[in-house]
Design brief:
This protein is α+β, with helices and mostly antiparallel strands and 284 residues long. It has helices at 4-16, 45-52, 129-132, 145-154, 159-164, 174-184, 197-216, 273-283, and strands at residues 29-34, 57-63, 66-71, 75-79, 85-90, 99-105, 109-114, 121-125, 253-257, 260-264. The chain binds a DNA duplex (16 and 16 nucleotides) through helix 6.
Length: 284
DNA sequence: ATAAACGCCTGACGGC
DNA sequence: TGCCGTCAGGCGTTTA
């Protein structure tokens, strides 16, 4: 599920209960069973299980797309990548096909990390600042659009890959970036150095708007990756190529940008002057 | 400094 | 029905 609103939804369920499960705060970890060793980024299964056993969950929070379980001694950090999910279930419930790692609690429940594509990773951190240092700011915590403008202009990158760069901004993925660029009326290939202060302001507020709506809808559920969210019903461009733009009716286009499928409206998000020449060269 | 290509994986889908 | 290519919410590494 793996963008900020989906990760936030998982975190809230772990912290406060939800998705038919009780909160895990205060629970004591017994041991871990690992069925796909590469899920652990650094430890061996034995070392991991030994290091977590006997600890308690003090808090659960999110940083970018990372889920962080604060234990007594260290931080258990989870990244869902493309297909990961976390479930809290009573021990009498059977495990599922793609469960890669299970953490057993003394309370008669377990936390299951399910991940069909095996891209997800789990770490143990001593100091969570090490993780934070490698990430850009939280998009929902940026107050100054002028500062955001300055950071955009200082780079000379295509807008979409820049917004998805976790060192530039943490939490944006393919869906929410396409949606935000449509709301802001900006072309995904626009060079970040060419943005105006007005456009930067619009972009920041579009980013915050899609993320907030996404969180309110408990994220998006797509195809077979159903996880209970409903934001997919409000997509304006993502996955809608060939369908009319909800604003102007122009048919949504799909192109590839930075190896990712990119959906946009050529009327609401016109190609910048500076890119028109390159476009013509491509067609010749 | 930026950007493309590729690797990591399984499953769904469309075409034949 | 089966086989095959293509695509998918992410990101790290290597290469240009």
């Amino acid at each position: 599920m793996p963008e900020l609103p989906e990760v936030e939804t998982v975190c809230r369920a772990l912290r406060s209960g939800g998705r038919d499960a009780p909160p895990i705060i205060g629970w004591q970890l017994k041991k871990a069973d690992i069925f796909w060793a590469k899920t652990l980024a650094e430890q061996s299964p034995e070392e991991f299980s030994r290091k977590i056993s006997g600890q308690k969950v003090e808090d659960v929070f999110r940083r970018g797309k990372f889920i962080i379980l604060q234990l007594i001694q260290n931080f258990l950090v989870v990244h869902l990548r493309m297909s990961g999910d976390l479930r809290v279930e009573p021990d009498d419930k059977e495990l599922l096909k793609h469960d890669r790692l299970i953490i057993w609690f003394e309370q008669g429940y377990h936390l299951a990390f399910n991940d069909p594509r095996k891209f997800g990773r789990i770490w143990l951190y001593q100091n969570i600042d090490e993780l934070s240092a490698r990430l850009g700011p939280e998009p929902l915590e940026i107050k100054s659009s002028d500062e955001f403008y300055q950071r955009l202009v200082r780079r000379k990158r295509q807008l979409k890959p820049l917004l998805m760069d976790q060192k530039f901004l943490s939490g944006m993925g393919n869906i929410y970036t396409d949606e935000a660029l449509h709301i802001a009326g900006l072309h995904p290939l626009m060079n970040s150095a060419d943005i105006t202060p007005e456009q930067a302001k619009k972009l920041l507020s579009a980013i915050q708007q899609v993320l907030q709506t996404g969180i309110k809808r408990n994220g998006a559920s797509i195809d077979w990756m159903y996880r209970g969210g409903s934001f997919q019903n409000e997509f304006r461009v993502y996955g809608r190529s060939g369908q009319p733009c909800p604003i102007c009716g122009t048919l949504i286009k799909k192109i590839t940008v930075g190896q990712r499928g990119t959906h946009f409206c050529s009327t609401c998000q016109p190609i910048p002057q500076s890119l028109q020449l390159k476009e013509m060269e491509r067609k010749l």
